[in-house]
Amino acid sequence: MNDRPVENLRVHFYGTQGSGSVFPSRRERRDLRELMEYELLQAVFQDLEQFRDSNGRVSFDPEEVLGGPLKKNTLLDYRRKFQLPEPRVYGGWTTCVWVETADGHDIVLDCGSGFRNCAAHLQEKWADRPERHLHVFGSHSHLDHTEGFDQAAVCFDPRNTLHIYGNRQFLFALDGYLGIFSRQVKDEVRGVQTPIFYAMMPARFEARELVAAGSEGESGFGAQGQHDLATPLQLGKTTIQALEVYHPAPCLAYRIERNGKAFLFCTDHELRHGPDGDDPRQQASLEAEQRVVEFAQGVDLMYRDAQYLRVEYDGQQGIGNSGAVPRLDWGHSCIEDVRDMAEQCGVKHTLIGHHDPNRDWSERNWIDSMLSRGCAGTGRVIELARAETDFDL
């Protein structure tokens, strides 16, 4: 966790994986180890060139090179001489982002499996505070965006209050199995998804449903109120504005802004490429894309879902060991479209996330290198999002 003071906004990424948590395979771990070993050996042998004599032979005393006897501490000290680039590691946790504000507010976007690590860091940060408040903004109800909730330490501390905002489906996804708002769970679902339920979770939970004007009504699970999507929420000097995007389940994106710096979080939005331009779904997708484009104007940092390359979306090519099937209406965008949109909007730094679980480490690295080459000389950065990274705005 970054211990430097927060000057304005600090954005921490805990989960950028899509559709389900993954762990690197043995082959991926081997490939990563081989890359790191190659770079280290290359650096070591370059260092030993200083001992090459006039005849081209290398001769040295190991203790002279290491600065001491051949022991663990001297070997590790010698290793630290080489400032090798850290390999790109993307992490296998599903979506979770923590935003800290300079005036002490903590905001979490989505509660995928990355929420467990995020919550542990929040508990560490809050330490002995008698009262602690967390503002959770959910995008939508799918499991990969809610699965970490009942594993999160913040839910099991009675000093904590979680203010949870989202659309009706997102709030219901948390309440249906856990009963954290309604304080009840139906017998037929208790224990089906998790053994945990509200009676085991001593934190306080408050729900605020985000609704479009004209669609207000009874939530039915104890929401403490409703809030118009078109009206920004204010936490101190920080503004949070929600907008509806295009996904098979109702889904929200969020723009978080403070002191002229802005972060756009847009997961699970599909810029649809259907064959019929008059299809209502196509029109709805294009309208949502235009809303995202408008929200992206002037953004310093953008996280956006782009799970597929266009050939994969169209079903001309598979991903990893998955077959070549069309991904139309699966609810995710294409990498090329997000790259073009980021360039069109002048976004300073774009993080492409919601990685497909079938895409292995080496292919993600290849895509990252392609994106990096495309940005050369532009002053912008477009790259794949990685867990365990943070950005100061």
Offer a few descriptive terms.
alpha/beta; single chain; 393 residues; globular; 9 helices; seven-stranded mixed beta sheet; eight-stranded mixed beta sheet
Q: What does the secondary structure layout of this molecule look like, with pairings?
A:
Layout: E1 9-15, H1 26-47, H2 62-66, H3 72-79, E2 96-101, E3 106-109, H4 115-126, E4 132-137, E5 160-166, H5 168-178, E6 204-211, E7 226-228, E8 233-235, E9 238-245, E10 251-258, E11 261-266, H6 280-296, E12 301-305, H7 310-313, H8 335-345, E13 349-353, H9 361-375, E14 381-384, E15 389-392
Parallel strand pairs: 3-4, 4-5, 5-6, 6-7, 11-12, 12-13, 13-14
Antiparallel strand pairs: 1-2, 1-15, 2-3, 8-9, 9-10, 10-11
How many H/I helical runs? Answer: 9
Structural class, by secondary structure, is: alpha/beta
Strand tally: 15
List unreliable stretches of 5+ residues.
none
Which of globular, elongated, flat, extended, rod-shaped describes the shape?
globular
Order of helices and strands: EHHHEEHEEHEEEEEEHEHHEHEE
Distance between the termini: 16 Å
Q: Report the average pLDDT across residues.
A: 93
The residue fraction in helices comes out at 25-40%
- Taking all Cα atoms into account, the compactness measure Rg is 24 Å
Major sheet characteristics: 8 strands, mixed
Q: Kindly estimate the percentage of residues that lie in beta strands according to DSSP.
A: 15-25%
* Strand order in space, largest sheet: 7-6-5-4-3-2-1-15
